[in-house]
Amino acid sequence: MQAEYERWLLAQIKTDPTVFRELYAYYFPKVYAYIAYRVRRKQDTEDLVSEIFLVVVEQIRDFEYRGEHSFAAWLFRIAYNMVCQFHRQQNRTQYIPLEDLPAMSQNDLSPDHELMKKERFALLSQLISTLSPRRQEIITLKYFGALRNQEIAQILGLDERTIASHLSRGLRELHDKYVESELFIHE
Amino acid sequence: MNEFEPHTDRIEQLLNDATPASDVSFYEQLEAHLLQRLQKPTIPIQGHSPRRWFWRAIFPTQYRMAAAVMMTIAVTLAVFTAFPSLAQSLNQFFKRDTSDVKVQQAEVMVGEDNFDFFRGSPFPTGEAELFSLEEAQARVSYSITVPQTDGIFLSRLALNEDTETVIQIYTVPSIRGLNGSFFLTFEQTPANLYEPPSIGASAVVEEVAIGETTGAYVVGTYETQSQLSEVVSMPSGVVQDDNFLPYGSVVRIDYQSVWVNNPQWQQLAWQDGNKVYRVTANWANGLLNIRAFAEGVLHNTMIDAGQLIGMPQGIPDEWQAWVENVTFYDDYQSVVYEYRDDEVFVFISEGSANVPIFDRPEAAPDTHEMLSIGGHTGDYEAGLWEPRLLTLGSMPPFSRMTPEMFAEPIPYQWVRWQANGLTREVAVFNASYAPDELADIADHLVFTSPDYAARRSQSSPARADLRPVWRYAEASAESYSQFDVYVPRHIRFIPWPYNPYNTLYDYRMGVVWQPYGIYDPSQFYSTPVIPEDLEPPVLLIFQRPLKQQEQGLLSGCAWPESSTREALQLADGTPVLYTTGTWEAGSEPFIPLERLCIEGQHFQIIRWRQDGMAFEIMAIDANDITPAHLLTIAGSMERSR
After folding, report:
1. What are phi and psi for residue B313, nearest 5 degrees?
2. pLDDT tens digits for B158-176?
3. Is residue B544 pLDDT above 50, yes or no?
4. Is A162 within 8 Å of B239 when comparing Cβ atoms?
């Protein structure tokens, strides 16, 4: 979304709440995917996404635009806090059956294709959950929140170069774990 | 997939290909609901919630007990600073209330990571309240002073920007692992901004000499007696849950507190120059002499933060500064800079001692080579840190690491070199730098060393009676036994990961004994209690005044005839008898604990005499303990006070 357009939408929302649709349409898929990777279960994902957007609409009129990406950083900061709260309340990682996982596409995939994608999601999200908490956040914010390092740095309160370093190491680690899991599966 | 393709591309492709998407119906329903919300005016929900919400929402279940304690601390501290100095009735340091009973208010926003802050944990999960010395210094108008402490470690810095109060929170590794409940805070505030904390009407304030000035010492605290009311404000539109308050909710509780002269709480305040200092400690009874701490602060332990900040220069960007720490021990002085980045720990130290500042693993390093650092010859070592092989003690920084962190061997690397008469080290854990890379980093560090020698000569000579007493219940044991109890001079002489339990006097044997075991210290919120089913591996120290005829073991365990005996000596030449073997059938168990000294357990014992006392140190099934360990512990024994 163009920064100027986003700024205009945020200003406009005070008089015309319907413009929120535009922001929602743009950010919803990113927030949904990010949350899905962080909590995995479809029901939990929907609960958290609802809560996040409820907080957003509650506070959006008071939101102060501070330049490009400031809205994304604010939105994902709320999402990040929700995820942290969610995990604090969870005692342990639970096995989640495939049918409880979120769908993989709004398009009509063939059942086989959908199943394959779900399995891949299950594997990847499980592998991601074995990374350090910080790397989990950075990778999911990057690839599912579609955020830039600068925004992630803002959300997590870290230096941008630290984000880059974590991202690079995290991806390598994830790749190694993925290869290992493939070998294990094929043995 | 081309196997030569860069692997991060491959994983990125997989991630992009497995992006979950919502059902259209959920998307549309939520959108409609949100738009409806946006078009209505917002009214914050005020309501009364079940009490359990408050605790469950703020604190994880496993920390509830500690949390209750910490909340009391938080509220007490908050109230202490909430009232301006309406009347200088008591003195300049504390404000006496007209009653011991007062109504207090606590307001907490759910989602603030306030728990870890008050735990004083050196391993915070959130960094919201974490200030480095440099950050804190940039926010106050005076130069922060940092105590050079013996045996305690600066874990976090907090700041009250209104009063420019810098709060340094220390943990106490000599009761390592008890960081969750034991803390000491050292505060400094410009005298003209200092707001005396309130104390109960019956509080006893004692004037005490702190160096050449006079301070005020108070024992006790306000303790919560009953909750009067609770109001929860939640963000509007948030779905209520039976068990948890949603993020952003604010809980305001009115409750009644009563001042209790509880000796576990101590406060000491005094003024030096234009600053008022205040030391607060909890669980301090029998553990800590905060007057001695204050004396130490004044006499020989202050260092100007300006000399620490920003040192050394040239730190790689990926190492995030966490905390700086200055430690003066009897036999070495050092400045340790600590950096953390998730699993990676980096310690940079500079010290006056010509000995390694950090402990070394007992196992030989996998790699050892000489290299050049800025024209100086240095050592490079790398290998796996096997925690159970750790040698003598737990000097910083390792005493700050939790047992969980040592569950698996940790890869380590370090370089060590000498320059300007000082020993410098860079130790990296859980990372993999090439030797040249690490040498290059070391080479680019710029130190502006404090002048240790000058600082030492300015200070008063160390006074044994002013050293903080970090021991458990030696005082109590002494009062029962009627003799001076000896303890290892410092916790670092006890091999990691053995942690101390209480100190006890066995009236039947006339023996004082101190067990050290491997346990998860976080389970204790007060003095660790020796479990009845204590099992090996365990270390035990026994002592009592010499009798005319010593017979058998001080521990009361039956002397195994088949044991191997060897004459050894301590560093000062004191003769020691070292015995090792296996308890035999018919061995008497150690009376208070039935699972020690029983058949099949391996033991090592050293016995010696010193200052009219008989001592015995016993290691049972402690396979990583060597005779050298036992001799070192023995050599460090001194009177507890």
Report:
1. -80, 160
2. 777 778 888 877 665 444 3
3. yes
4. no
